[in-house]
Amino acid sequence: MSEYSRPPADMPASEIIESWLPRAFEAAPRRPPPDSPSVRVTLSGPGGGTWDVCVSDEALSVKRRELGAQHSRPNPEDDPDVLLRQSVADFLALLRDDPDLPALLPPDTDVTDVLCVDEGRISLLAQIDGRISFEIEGRRRRRWAIDVAFGQSGMRAGRPRSTVRVDNRTCAELSSGALAPLQALLSGRLQVEGDRALVMQVVMLAGSVRNSR
């Protein structure tokens, strides 16, 4: 594990995105393909905001979107490839311990492993077009959630087309690699509402990430 495996525990979300991530990317030994997807991150709550993150062979660039730009009329030419929405607290839980949640990012995974996607995963991602939400039921009524949109249909969708819910134990087994995402889906340990075909596409993408490490 490198010194940039995880950000400092007291670092706010905005500093992680705007400063720490670019430094971690610069120090990473791997370089991504030139057609890596662009990502827009929207975090709600105190310390939140919206950022456009673009990866190139040379650097990771981050641009914070002003409040007026966030609420302006959608322009398809301005759309990212992937849009992530969640609370500041749930974003931080990805990168540090939360006593009521399992490890969401596997302990043997650097953050830069997620940023430096390979050609195969880019191809899988390009086939996904829709909006999906994931929810984890933790301990003591802790609920972690993320809302992800892919492609033009996902960006224009008013709400997720699919919702996937998973319990604490299943999430821990997925994170550790003891349970494969496709196996969890087929065995019913992932509770699915809505478009199962969209869920299958995202699960295949998640499985390719795990298998590549």
What does this molecule look like?
With 213 residues, the chain is of the alpha+beta class. The protein has helices spanning 13-27, 67-70, 88-95, 111-115, 119-126, 151-156, 168-176, 181-186, 196-211; strands at residues 39-44, 49-55, 60-64, 82-87, 130-137, 143-150, 162-167, 191-194. Helix 5 (119-126) packs antiparallel against helix 9 (196-211). The model has no long low-confidence stretch (mean pLDDT 87).
Give a brief outline of the structure.
This protein is α+β, with helices and mostly antiparallel strands. It is 36% helix and 23% strand. It is built from 9 helices and 8 strands.
Q: Rg to the nearest angstrom?
A: 17 Å
Helix and strand succession? HEEEHEHHHEEHEHHEH
Using the alpha-carbon principal axes, give the shape.
globular
Strand proportion: 15-25%
Largest sheet: 8 strands, mixed
Overall average pLDDT: 87
Summarize the amount of helix as a percent range: 25-40%
Poorly predicted regions: none
- Overall SS class: alpha+beta
Amino-to-carboxy terminus distance: 13 Å
By DSSP, the count of extended strands is: 8
Counting DSSP H or I runs of 4 or more residues, the number of helices is 9
Order of strands side by side in the largest beta sheet?
Answer: 3-2-1-4-6-5-7-8
Number of domains: 1
Keywords:
213 residues, alpha+beta, 8-stranded mixed beta sheet, 9 helices, globular
Protein topology:
Elements: H1 13-27, E1 39-44, E2 49-55, E3 60-64, H2 67-70, E4 82-87, H3 88-95, H4 111-115, H5 119-126, E5 130-137, E6 143-150, H6 151-156, E7 162-167, H7 168-176, H8 181-186, E8 191-194, H9 196-211
Parallel strand pairs: 1-4, 5-7
Antiparallel strand pairs: 1-2, 2-3, 4-6, 5-6, 7-8
